[in-house]
């Protein structure tokens, strides 16, 4: 199970737990292979019965980065633009399937820096109202509790992912260093024809440096792609 899935599932489980505390009927990861199709995605990470005028609601959790090329410009101007874009993508992918199943599709999108989308905010507000009634607490206190639990998990898992991406960068550098030594020997052979006895060593050093740099870049690219990737 990769880091993206672990992060997604942790947030999903927290939301499902708060729903259960509010005495709501909850099912996890529902919709796979329904309607006789070969689409095995699950539009309901958390399916809550009777949420929308007696209709079940399919909560679809997604984490998105505001730093991707597609959303960077808009996100730099409008707060929450990346979350809004993620909500739009989820509706386009799942609205028809949810409608056919008699569900409401509600994306719960959060940006990697912790900003939740409007639909998620609406869900958490309503959930806090229900929890406050059941627990005899103020709604504002429950709201802070919900966002606090989600924020702690998101930040801690982002840190783990960042650490793992750093290791991927180092691995990429090491992988690049090997070919770099080989290419360095070839470069050295060419230089050696001009400066016998020096060229092979110098060329190997140069080639290794180039290989290590390329490997570092490769590892960084892999890490960045992983950080912004959404679980479908």
Describe this structure in words.
With 232 residues, the protein is of the alpha+beta class. Helix content is 64%, strand content 14%. The protein is built from six helices and four strands; from the N terminus they run H-E-E-E-H-H-E-H-H-H. It has helices spanning 3-21, 72-77, 81-101, 118-135, 139-192, 199-228; strands at residues 26-30, 44-52, 55-64, 104-111. The chain has a four-stranded mixed sheet with strand order 1-2-3-4. A hairpin with a 2-residue loop joins strand 2 (44-52) and strand 3 (55-64). The longest helix has 54 residues, at 139-192. The model is unreliable at 185-191, 193-198 and 200-226 (pLDDT under 50).
Key features?
232 residues, alpha+beta, 4-stranded mixed β-sheet
Q: What is the helix tally? A: 6
Cα-based radius of gyration, to the nearest Å: 24 Å
- State the helicity in percent bands: 55-70%
Overall form: globular
Instruction: Report, as a whole number of angstroms, the end-to-end distance.
Output: 14 Å
Q: Tell me about the biggest sheet? A: 4 strands, mixed
Residue fraction in strands: 5-15%
Order of helices and strands: HEEEHHEHHH
Total beta strand runs: 4
Spans with pLDDT under 50 lasting ≥5 residues?
Answer: 185-191, 193-198, 200-226
Helical/strand content category: alpha+beta
Strand order of the largest sheet: 1-2-3-4
Overall pLDDT, averaged? 79
């Amino acid at each position: 199970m990769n880091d993206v899935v672990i992060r997604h599932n942790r947030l999903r489980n927290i939301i499902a737990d708060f729903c259960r505390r509010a005495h709501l009927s909850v099912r996890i990861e529902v919709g796979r292979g329904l309607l006789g199709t070969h689409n095995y995605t699950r539009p309901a990470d958390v399916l809550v019965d009777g949420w929308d005028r007696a209709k079940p609601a399919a909560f679809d959790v997604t984490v998105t980065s505001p730093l991707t090329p597609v959303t960077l410009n808009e996100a730099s101007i409008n707060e929450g633009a990346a979350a809004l874009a993620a909500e739009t993508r989820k509706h386009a992918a799942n609205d028809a399937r949810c409608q056919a199943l008699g569900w409401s599709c509600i994306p719960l999108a959060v940006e990697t820096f912790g900003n939740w989308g409007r639909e998620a905010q609406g869900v958490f507000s309503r959930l806090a109202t229900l929890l406050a009634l059941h627990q005899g607490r103020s709604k504002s206190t429950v709201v802070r509790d919900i966002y606090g639990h989600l924020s702690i998990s998101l930040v801690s898992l982002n840190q783990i992912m960042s650490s793992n991406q750093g290791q991927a960068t180092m691995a990429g550098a090491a992988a690049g260093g090997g070919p770099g030594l080989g290419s360095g020997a070839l470069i050295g052979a060419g230089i050696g024809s001009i400066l016998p006895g020096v060229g092979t060593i110098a060329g190997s050093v140069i080639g290794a440096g180039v290989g290590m740099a390329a490997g570092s870049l490769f590892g960084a690219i892999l890490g960045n792609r992983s950080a912004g990737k959404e679980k479908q």
